[in-house]
Amino acid sequence: MSIKNFNGNVDATYLKEMAILLEDIKETSYQMMNLSPGDIILDIGCGIGVDAYNIAEIVGNKGKVIGLDNDPEMINNATENFSAINLEFTLGNINNLPFPDGYFDSVRAEKLFQVLPPDFNYDDIIQEMIRVTKKGGMIILVDTDWGSASLDYKNQGLTNRLLDFFAKVCRPNGYAGREFIGLLKRNNVQVVDVNVKPIITRDFRETTFGEWLTREALEHGIATPEEMEGWNHDLMEKTEQGEFYSCVNMVLVAGKK
Ligand SMILES: C[S@@+](CC[C@H](N)C(=O)[O-])C[C@H]1O[C@@H](n2cnc3c(N)ncnc32)[C@H](O)[C@@H]1O
């Protein structure tokens, strides 16, 4: 599975392609972590391990990075792809982190909250992240605000209907990015830095609004087959003519315990 035929399941190939697209955003998130050589870092929902590996290079051999994920396939993939003396990957759940209080200098979660089911209590989760962070340590949250998605299509009504449906139904927690400041603040974490970075896409096939959105929208009766046929045809034509434009914001928030 890759971005070009994304079917709603995040897998290793999709995450690899996304890591290239989001290189600049990832780099900004590392800067927001105030990393120093010797730091001990946790990356929760580490996926294929790209960030854990990059951060391990920054903190050096006196430091340590742990990448944690609840999907054994992701952990196997990360372990196979990335190895360093100061890097570990471990199976675990954000609900119940297998680490002592105050163990980490910095804890991060990227594109994790948008996939957490709505019945998770996000305050409990953030409390668990706070628990394992040292006093004065950093908590970095990075996620998509799917409610900010925009796309140039002649039928504004259909566009709004589909993008709204995508944020509310296709993603378990599509508004994650915009919720972070409030989430940290009400859990007594000092918000010290906020960045918003747009992801601009000029190729319809590189968005998540093609095949998968079409199937979901038809199944849920959000649009008619004719509307979706026009959507796919016209947006591919726009891509071929170099006219395609879509954009969605990534929100990066740094908090200090
Ligand atoms: C969209 S991916 C993002 C991966 C990585 N952070 C990145 O930016 O490439 C979300 C990851 O969170 C993991 N995940 C989902 N629920 C989790 C949970 N309850 N605890 C730990 N990891 C979880 C998934 O297995 C997946 O690898």
Description:
The chain has 257 residues and is of the alpha/beta class. It has nine helices and seven strands; from the N terminus they run H-H-E-H-E-H-E-E-H-E-H-H-E-H-H-E. The radius of gyration is 19 Å and the shape is elongated.
Query: Could you give me the name of the CATH homologous superfamily of the domain at 3-145 and 172-199 and 250-256?
Result: Vaccinia Virus protein VP39
Write down the CATH topology of the domain at 3-145 and 172-199 and 250-256: Rossmann fold
The helix/strand series, from N terminus to C terminus, equals: HHEHEHEEHEHHEHHE
DSSP summary, beta strand count: 7
Corresponding CATH architecture of the domain at 3-145 and 172-199 and 250-256? 3-Layer(aba) Sandwich
Q: Class of the domain at 3-145 and 172-199 and 250-256 in CATH?
A: Alpha Beta
Looking across the biggest beta sheet, what order are the strands in? 3-2-1-4-5-7-6
Strand content: 25-35%
Number of helical runs? Answer: 9
Q: In terms of per-residue confidence, which ranges show pLDDT below 50 for 5 or more consecutive residues?
A: none
